[in-house]
Amino acid sequence: MIVWFEDDAPAERFGGKGASLSRMVRAGLPVPPGFCVSTRGLDAAHSGDVVHGLEEALDRLGAAPVAVRSSAIGEDGTSASFAGIHRTVLNVRRDRVASALSEVRDSAFSDAARAYREKRGLPSEARMAAVVQAMVVPDVAGVLFTRDPVTKEDRIVIEGSWGLGEAIVSGIVTPDHWVVSRDGRVVEARIADKDVAIVATADGTAEVEVEADRRTIACLGEADLRAVVDLARTCERVFGGPQDIEWAVAAGRVYLLQSRPVTT
Length: 264
Prior knowledge:
- This protein has helices at about 10-25, 40-45, 50-60, 95-105, 110-120, 165-170, 220-240, and strands at about 1-5, 35, 65-70, 90, 130-135, 140-145, 155-160, 175-180, 185-190, 195-200, 205-210, 245-250, 255-260.
- It is α+β, with helices and mostly antiparallel strands.
- The chain has a six-stranded antiparallel sheet with strand order 9-8-7-6-12-13. The chain has a five-stranded antiparallel sheet with strand order 1-2-5-3-4. It has a two-stranded antiparallel sheet with strand order 10-11.
- The chain is globular and about 55 Å long.
C-alpha cells in the first residue's frame, strides 16, 4: 500500500501524480524524496496496518515537515489534470500527516471534483491515492509549459514568483513571465509587481506581503532560468510529449515537483 518513488508506482493503484514522480526519480530528475500511498491505503488510512506502515515510511523519509498531495486515478492525464481541485496540504508536521491524507481523500468527493469529472466525462466514482514528499521551502517557485498552452506554439512558457507556487496556481499574484524559443533564446520577458507570496510558517502556510524592493526584481536569474528550461526538456523526453511542470528553487538548487501532460 506504500511504495517509494524509486520503485514502480502503477497509475492504476497510485494515481497519475504518484506514477509520474516515480518515473521522474527513476530517470534521475531532481525530485524531493517521498513515497506513494495507494487508493487502498488511503481508504484505510486510520487502520492499524496502514498507520504502522506510514510511521515506518516517515521514519525512513526522515523529513519534517512534509507535503501531502493528491494523486487520484485519472488525475494529471492528457484529458484531465484536476489542477486546483484536489487537495494539497503543505508544510505538514508529522503528527498531522494522517489528517492531511484524510483531507486529500475527502477532496475527491467535493462538489468541484464531481462537477469536473462530469464535465470531462470521467467515471463518477472517485478513487484517490496520495503522495508524501519532503517539504521544499522555496525561494522561488512556479510553473512551466513545454508548449505554449494558449497559442499552441512550439515554445516554452515559464511563470514564477517568490515563495511557494500556490500563489500562482491560486491566482493571488501576477507572476514573472518568460517565453523561450526551442533554441534557448528568451523571446519575451515580463517582470511583474509581485506584491504577495505564500510562505511556509511554523504551522502550515500563510500569505504575506513582499518587501517593496523585491517586488519588481526578476525572481529567476539567467542561470536558474536556463536550468529550469533544461530540466523541462528532459521531462519532455522522458514522457514523450509536451509537459506541464511545477518547479521550485531552494538554496540555489532547482527541484521538480510534478510533470504531467499538457491538458488538451
